[in-house]
Amino acid sequence: MSKFQKIPIILAFIGYIFVCYQTAQYGGIRNVLVVTIGLIAGFSLYHAAFGFTGAWRRIISERRGVGLRAQVILLGLTALFTIPMIGWGSAGGFVQPVGIALIFGAFLFGIGMQMGGGCGSGTLFTVGGGSTRMVITLIFFIIGSMIGVAHVGWWRALPSLGRIDMTHQLGPIPALLITFTLLAAIWIGSVMVERRAHGSLEKGRATGSIISGPWSPWMGAIALAFVGIATVYVLNRPWGITQAFSFWGAKVANGLGYPISDIPYWRVSDRLLGRSVFQSTTSIMNFGIMLGALLAAGLASKYAPVWRLNRYEVLTAIIGGLLMGFGARLAGGCNIGAYLGGVASGSAHAWVWALFAFGGSSLTVYLRTPRRTA
Predict the structure, then answer these.
(1) Cis, peptide link before residue 217, omega less than 30° from 0
(2) In a domain, 234, yes or no
(3) Cα dihedral angle (44, 46, 49, 52), rounded to 10 degrees?
(4) pLDDT in tens, 153-173
(5) Domain hosting residue 245, numbered range
């Protein structure tokens, strides 16, 4: 390992200690645990190259479903533990209304995923791993979140079926049965699609070193399931990411003198706006994700930021970030908060989100795929 590759490792440890020290003043050992869980998430995401965006793109364009099946493992393992914790314990779930706002927001997010090159978790771990393009995506993800917050009240007033909370309305056992039935359908569907296209199933990458990677998608799924379960145990709610983005944007806008409190959302959340980012558990977990990916990239000797980007890369990063930010706020979250968090809660909205986000991704992949001419 060269001296240069040691730098991200050192920076990751310094950053981890700094964030832990700052946040411990507000939440003590609990917040230190949250940062650590985020660090594990970022480390796992990077080494497993675990993303919803790439896996969806591969099943759409290449008819390869190994990434999609790894997502099934992640969702299933997480739900197996968290639905009972929410249904029979004291933890709260993520349950959003099933309505026009959710549908439109998820569809926009699906488009943004493919344009921006990453989802909520994907954006954070690739930024931590040294992707300069994804820094642009993250900046405009935050800006899009701010725009979404300013308009979310109008969207949420549109027709809706309300919240469909299977865990509490049906009970944890029926909620688990429905969840595993839907996950089994995704697994079987991906197998059928892949076998029809290729005749056999792709095995997926094998795990190399635990410390320096790479990891198999299966190991990544298990590690991230641990992250989702641990988050519910420590914070009494599922893993979320994008709510912090609007908070970060609001803090910056407020610091620059923009009358952020005039926006109805922030009038309701005025107490939140006055807090430090180190008081926000979603924020510190996000910091942990970026630091974990930075550490993983350094240990893998792959931390190599690219400083020259062409116009197309910049433009798609901007558009993708804006669409994901806006869509996430309308839909009440991203692939982690709305989809994983919703499935982990036994909420019907998660499946509606997945359907329309996948639809947005499919449309974008189709339009961006070169057509063969006769």
Answers:
(1) no
(2) yes
(3) 80
(4) 899 899 999 999 999 999 999
(5) 3-368
